[in-house]
Write a structure and sequence with these properties.
The chain has 206 residues and is an alpha+beta fold. The protein contains 6 helices and 7 strands; from the N terminus they run αααβαββββαββα. The termini are far apart.
């Protein structure tokens, strides 16, 4: 093997040069690929002007939180309003990403906002009041079918909740101009930790 490296044969020397070049090229490609997969390190992110620090928003008024987010070059987005006995109305109760995390400029900061301890009940009253003010005509009741007509039919109960939140809007009722969120998301059992969509689905299957 040593003789091969010490050879003065031009042909052998050419082979060695080509082999060494291929080895160096392979090492360079592997190192470049590894760096590409690794991405920028925390040290790089600190130096990169395209990265900013996510501000702490929990406990702050929504308008104040929005200004802090936008002044940092980020986008402020409300995921949903929720009941809260701890935080006052229009105050942020959770955020994603967490504070002090480095993210790219223009990234979204998603928050949940307190609607107060009676948010859902008060919101339901407002929606019902709006429906009453519309003076909607009730839908005609379907005629009662004889028992024999129901043989072979399958009755399906819609649980009304799902795992993924759907914040798109739909009419609150047939013919209504008032819109509501399709599915703002369910709650979670305090003790059981069972999500509402799982509980309602299990009941619907019975």
């Amino acid at each position: 093997m040593l003789d091969l490296f010490l050879t003065k044969n031009p042909k052998h020397q050419a082979i060695l040069i080509v082999a060494a070049s291929l080895i160096l090229l392979t090492i360079t490609v592997l190192l470049g690929y590894a760096f590409f997969l690794k991405g920028p390190t925390k040290h790089d992110a600190k130096k990169d002007k395209n990265f900013v620090t996510v501000p702490a928003l929990v406990g702050k008024d929504m308008s104040v939180a929005k200004k802090k987010v936008e002044s940092a070059g980020l986008k402020f987005e409300v995921d949903q309003w929720v009941n809260s006995k701890v935080y006052p109305i229009k105050h942020v109760i959770s955020q994603k990403p967490l504070p002090n995390v480095k993210v790219k400029k223009g990234s979204r900061v998603i928050v949940n906002v307190s609607g107060g301890k009676d948010y859902y009940s008060e919101n339901a009253k407002r929606q019902q009041s709006a429906v009453n003010n519309e003076n909607l005509k009730p839908l005609p009741e379907p005629p009662i079918q004889p028992r024999s007509a129901l043989i072979g039919k399958v009755v399906v109960i819609d649980p009304g909740h799902q795992r993924k939140t759907d914040l798109t809007k739909e009419p609150i009722g047939p013919g209504s101009k008032i819109m509501k969120v399709k599915n703002p998301g369910g709650t979670l059992g305090t003790v059981s930790k069972v999500p509402e969509y799982e509980l309602t689905l299990s009941i619907a299957k019975k």
